[in-house]
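Record 1 of the preview.
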Amino acid sequence: MAGPLLEVCVESFDDAVRAVAAGAGRIEYCSALALGGLTPSPGALARMRDINAPCMVMVRPRPGDFQYSQSELEIMKREIAIARDHGAAGVVFGVADKAGGLDVNAMRGLLAASCGLQTTLHRVFDAVPDQFIALEQAIDLGFDRILTSGGAQNALCGARKTADLIARAKQRIGILPGAGVTSENAGKILEVTGAAELHASCKMANHGVSDDPDRVAVDADQVRALCRAMQGGRCR
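->
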């Protein structure tokens, strides 16, 4: 039986190929991970069908906060359409209101534009005042999963809160623990949360491909080690 699914967050086509070859079962496809992840470039999206795993495309038109103008929301809808045209399995996004909660109306429009695609609510969820209220909102909106550290600095610190979210969700939505996930702590996170999948960047400690501190490159050895830690290496 296959083990828990590992989703690896990448900022380039080459990183995606490297991660899948090392055992990743799903890709979160982004650009500019040093800025928290932005929408991939058109050229990167054009290569997506050459990645041998489902790709969730980040839809985030700029760095900074998650409060978007109407024109930015229209851009995000267009980015969703482009991601679909290039073979995305799904999209990843989140919108906050001025009070710091989820902007339900804005996201309802984005979800309508995402019809037929999987949808992940990103870590805007970790900044809301009440995650249990936000959980019900995400379920009512129809998201497929929520990426979260349980509102903590990393997924290990937030594992017990994530376990509470999973219990409260009652399988109505997937909960994807992420932030600081490594081969050293993956087993504990899975044990405490009961999650069926994990999200990690598996980045090279020294940037690997250059001396640029803004480059976040995937370390295939870390992907393999994380897979081994996730139920005997049987990642899918």
